[in-house]
Amino acid sequence: MLHRVETPLSSLLRRRLPGYSLEAPFYTSQEIFDADMEAIFERHWIFVGVEPDVPEPGDTMTIDIGRNSVLIVRDDDNAVKAFHNVCRHRGARLVLEPKATVGNIVCRYHAWTYNTDGQLIHADHMGESFDPGCHGLKPVHLRSLEGLLFICLADEPPADFEDMAATMAPYLAPHDLRNCKVAYESDLIERGNWKLTMENNRECYHCAGNHPELTVPLFAYGFGFSPEQLDEQDREQAARYSCLVDDSSLEWEKEGIPSREIDHLDDRATGFRTQRLPLDGAGEAHTMDTKAACRKLLGKFTHARHGALSFWTQPNSWHHFMSDHVVTFAAIPLGPDRTLLRTKWLVHKDAVEGVDYDLENLTGVWTATNQQDGDLVAYCQQGATSPAYQIGPYSPYTEFLVEKFCNWYIGRMAAETGLVQP
């Protein structure tokens, strides 16, 4: 019989109590952070950007995932590809800028030169026996889901990405992300573990008291609620909201805009969830006046009142698709207590700033919300380092998606580290 050696991580995984927050080392330990990077971020599909990040042939974008630097480039045939950002000569970093435009990819150390297909096309002084064909850039698995870019650093990535893509493509296609442009991008360093960033995103229990901007376009009953605590008037309001969700979904689907909820957050390697929900007020966008932020609508939309389609992926992204603009979010771990939150706002590629949209109006709600969330994550990180910290119960009504994130994380860590769950 094979006997497995119990480690601190395996012990923590085994004793995780469903319905409760994770034990403190999951948020504070360097060893667990290193295990997260290897078992999660080097083996799963990670959201890193959008096709409009590299709109023209020769455009590049670099992304750092732990010890890996990845180069994303649009080649001369207009295809988007990904490579390890490492020269095959002596390992120098090739492209140093977050975004650049190149004719070829030239290593500034010894001028080894690669085309945008990753083929080595020039290397001086290497002798007649040298075979350039054996020294091309190392590829990284890349998939574009209707313009959302995902990479996987594993030799064999999870095979269920195509299932997610087939399910999600009809939901995302009406927004025509490939014909958008990045109107604005922001990077925020949150002073907390990446799992706290994701847990915070997966609930709106905290929204009413902390997000005065975000709660303007959102319905209060969309945050979740405890049925037994509602009085008769509140129950009537909750029932009206439920009917609004159902009626809106039927109306949108008649227009060819898929809207119904699909939830696979914790039952597959490539976990995801989606649903289109109505917005309050004018019902058009995540803006302070709840109206569309851009006059040029996206894709096939002929009017702006289509609520917001939310799309969550494990382990590191969430997205909001509206009729006039899209907001994407990527959480990239930097250390046990630091996480990069990268947000992009996209509008129609022909939209003109100052004419079709006002940048402050476009970005205002989520700029404020991101900073507020960053502060909350930092408070949780500080608490996790305290000797007084102990696991606490999740609300089954408003934190069920947090529980699904933790279920997914514990399950994937157990699978990827070879732990047989009890």
Automatic annotation (TrEMBL):
This is Rieske 2Fe-2S family protein. GO terms for molecular function: 2 iron, 2 sulfur cluster binding; iron ion binding; oxidoreductase activity. PROSITE patterns: RIESKE (PS51296). Residues 45-151 form the Rieske domain. It comes from the Bacteria. Its cofactor is Fe cation. Keywords: 2Fe-2S, Iron, Iron-sulfur, Metal-binding, Oxidoreductase. It comes from Faunimonas pinastri.
